[in-house]
Amino acid sequence: MRFLSECPWKRLQELRALIPNVPFQMLLRGANAVGYTNYPDNAVFKFCEVAKENGMDIFRVFDSLNYLPNMLLGMEAAGAAGGVVEAAISYTGDVSDPMRQKYSLDYYMNLADELVKAGTHILSIKDMAGLLKPEGSKLLVGTLRDRFPDVPIHVHTHDTAGAGVAAMLACAEAGADVVDVAVDSMAGMTSQPSMGAIVACTKGTKFDTGIALEKVFDYSEYWEVTRGLYAPFDCTATMKSGNADVYENEIPGGQYTNLHFQAHSMGLGNKFKEVKKAYAEANKLLGDLIKDKQLPL
Question: What sequence ranges are listed for the domain Pyruvate carboxyltransferase (predicted)?
Fold first, then answer.
């Protein structure tokens, strides 16, 4: 709509007509809907209503700061439209590190209590920076599963550090029902962990997906060719590998990719380490100001 002046519903309608039996899912930023500012409540409700009418099924509702009032509005709007509500906990920090108390296991459990109380159909962990390590995955998902034995748990991560497959396997072991992956030719780095790797690693186990690896290979080959057609616009072109320093700077996947591309386009590629450090320090300062209520949400 913004750049190509397209009807925002046309592609959704076409996809739904071609794929009638697979649930579609979208992100809903609570009171921000799909924008970057708070919209009037009736606009959020109407957006969800029209999205549902045009083929959307599951609304993953989140707030980047886990601000509950924003999330509750989005959940109510999605539910009123008849959609499946998937309330998402935005994850940061490291629950397996006892020295890190700002975003502790108790913090996430208290938030989950509120989301389940509000009636979410699915509980999601939105690990937007790819910070979940295997031990933290087992701790967080295992505790959620023990407290909410009947609520489906859906985990989303990014593979920036390269540990995404290990983390998602640990989530499955701990009781997660669904983990997000990407087709192999589009996976890794700031994308999601490899679909083929997950399918292969679970084959013959109690977590066997039932998906034939040969079909995964064919699917990946198609998207490998397609991705090549869009190579001039691929913002990951300047990235050669993942980087575990994301555990320090905690930059979300989409922001990491954009920041990397922008640094190189401005001739600062050789200073990307300093750029990431400055970004992390600015984020920490902003978080402290919000926590101390010196800056309004």
Answer: 1-217
